[in-house]
């Protein structure tokens, strides 16, 4: 019993601690055999919530999930399951209790994580059902129109228009499905890690974007120091391309748009001097299907979520600073695990 | 009984194709002279409150019915619905929600916020015209609103 991971303690009827195992001693370093159990809570008499007395009253075991606030400022939650049962201690005349405390904090945290994932999953399904259904509705409408045109007017212009729109909607659905497949590959696939000279790498990305930047009258610059990074080159290229494309798209009205790609050797950033983002958009930016601007049929609001997933896969962090009227900077770090 | 014709329907919808299909359906039904199309939530409220480019009542007449898409840029259909249905002067104008998914929660939320009816896209022509006609006549009979 001494080596059990659960905290085990024997108490007599007067709440005096008779014995405790190693886990209990480790958790409550000030607690000693001979002390009263309520002294663990700095009380001078039996606790109001004394579970031992309740167990005695019903002469049965009591199980209770409890959240204790721990730490110096009592702000750190610790979720535990307490089991307490009355017992007659063997070979003694003493009646008492056994208390077993199971630390379920890790379980609780994974439960929270699952709940979060479940909510994200539900919102993805909801958004998907809209974004996939929307082009289907359009296609159905144009097919109906084509049928009608065939029966009545036989207008070649109407025919041409309907076929063009059906194609556009099929392409839109195809883009969405490809984006979902890509997200799924990032989540389930393995990273192809390699040593990347970030300075050369970023220079290539800027060269590739040269024409697009020119069309938007934008300047893309490099700032700071770039080292060697162990990362998935193709995925990180995707991160930079998505961030820069986003800046170009959302700052199209900005005069003298400058997009800075920077690094201090630890973190990277993509900074623009565009219109910035409202706080409510910033909060949701990395969630799937978050659209920040007016309708663009080929934008599903997946780009930033893909960026987030890639950084997450590299065990890095991503965050942003944005102020309306002053621009946006997206920061990220990379810390890839070679065994992944 | 004499009632005013459905002079102006306000369609708040951001998807160009869906706008085209809805206008086709309304024209085929032959009951409306003017359809005003607004493509985002904020402009829809500007129109209803006659602000900015919609300040002239002659060019921006009060609609006799509003067809409101749920998912809109800048402001959702629900936000617009809530705003209009809590406005003492405007709440009388019937609003039909247009939903792509037919999601039960969306429909219930719409009803709670005061939507007069809903239509699940794709627009089923007969059902759609029936709802628009019914609510439009209701509005024309009881409304004291003028277009000025």
Classified by CATH, the class of the largest domain in chain A is Alpha Beta
Report mean pLDDT of chain B, rounded to a whole number.
82
Number of strands of chain A: 12
Mean pLDDT of chain A: 86
Oligomeric category: heterodimer
CATH topology (fold) name of the largest domain in chain A = Heat Shock Protein 90
- CA radius of gyration of chain A is 31 Å
Largest sheet of chain A: 5 strands, antiparallel
The CATH architecture term of the largest domain in chain A is 2-Layer Sandwich
Strand order of the largest sheet of chain B: 2-1-3-4-5
Low-confidence stretches of chain B: 144-148
Q: What structural class should be given to the helix and strand makeup of chain A?
A: alpha+beta
Q: Biggest interface pair, residues each?
A: A-B, 19 and 19 residues
What composes the largest sheet of chain B? 5 strands, parallel
SSE arrangement:
The complex is a heterodimer of chains A (340) and B (148).
Chain A: E1 7-12, E2 17-20, H1 22-27, H2 51-58, E3 62-70, E4 76-88, E5 95-103, H3 105-151, H4 156-188, E6 193-197, H5 198-208, H6 210-215, E7 218-225, E8 228-232, H7 233-250, E9 257-264, E10 267-272, H8 279-284, H9 303-313, E11 318-323, E12 327-333
Parallel strand pairs in A: 7-9
Antiparallel strand pairs in A: 1-2, 1-5, 3-4, 4-5, 6-8, 9-10, 10-12, 11-12
Helix pairs in contact in A: 3-4, 4-9, 7-9
Chain B: E1 6-12, H1 16-29, E2 32-38, H2 41-48, E3 65-69, H3 77-85, E4 95-99, H4 104-112, E5 117-120, H5 125-142
Parallel strand pairs in B: 1-2, 1-3, 3-4, 4-5
